[in-house]
Specification:
By secondary structure, this protein is an alpha+beta fold. A hairpin with a 4-residue loop joins strand 1 and strand 2. Helices cover about 30% and strands about 15% of the residues. A three-stranded antiparallel β-sheet has the order 1-2-3, with no helix packed on it.
Length: about 80
């Protein structure tokens, strides 16, 4: 179907794309299940795009992960590591 010729085009759902992400609730860190690495919240979009070719808005990522608040940011992770 040619979406350009539809009278009132709607955004097509992209549920078929898995985001390869999970939240480690113990540490409040997002984990890329494909790369087996933690990803700071402010790096999620960049990681998905550069490593997996996936473009997503953060609100879609948060909905996919079923979270209301962001996971740890890169600055929070740096501070946490320096305390340990």
């Amino acid at each position: 179907m040619d979406q350009d010729n539809v009278e009132s085009p709607q955004r097509l759902p992209d549920a078929s794309i898995s985001l390869l992400l999970q939240v480690d609730l113990r540490y409040n860190v997002t984990v890329c299940t494909e790369c087996c690495t933690g990803v700071a919240f402010d790096w999620i979009q960049s990681h998905l795009k550069s490593h997996h070719g996936i473009r997503k808005e953060l609100d879609a990522v948060m909905e996919y992960l079923n979270i209301d608040a962001s996971t740890l940011s890169s600055s929070e992770i740096k501070a946490w590591i320096s305390e340990v």
